Amino acid sequence: MEKLLIDLLHEYGYIILFIWSIMEGESGLVMAGVMVHTGDMNMGIAIATAASGGFLGDQIYFYIGRFNRSFILKIMKTQRRKFALATLLLKKYGWIIIFIQRYLYGLRTIIPMSIGTTKYSLFQFAIINFFSAIVWASITITLAYIFGKEILTILNFVKEHFIFILPFVVLAIIGIAYYFHITTKK
Fold this sequence. Notes:
Layout (H helix, E strand, L loop, with lengths): L1 H22 L2 H13 L4 H25 L1 H7 L4 H14 L1 H6 L9 H7 L5 H25 L1 H13 L1 H24 L1
């Protein structure tokens, strides 16, 4: 299974990175940075691919909010608090929240959709989103490239001791989810 995954990354790495960047991103960018470190990817192409995918993904989410406002608000009833938080963050911080939203865990897709439901300028969102995607891809891939050896060491350790690390991962995920639940309640 591991060999299959590595073979797929070697053959379709840029395509996987592009699609992953549309949907989520960070783990895909770290993977790309490590592959640049091992010489399996080109730094410039990886950054351009990830930035393009990240830009396109957020534009899609913005358009979903813009042209399906009532539908989005209806199906996202469970995410109402996050939508409200995203709207408050936009009012309080303006364009800065658009620029940094890629790093806000749990709000990456909510913020562009939420902004799309407002009367925020499509052109202004696209410009800020474009530069944000470039900075996001550049920083994340470059850091993963620089720390590639350490990341590979950690991955090998996790692979060898997976059963002992799993409870800590589960507790961390529960803790993060609880923190965001409490934060969005306010």
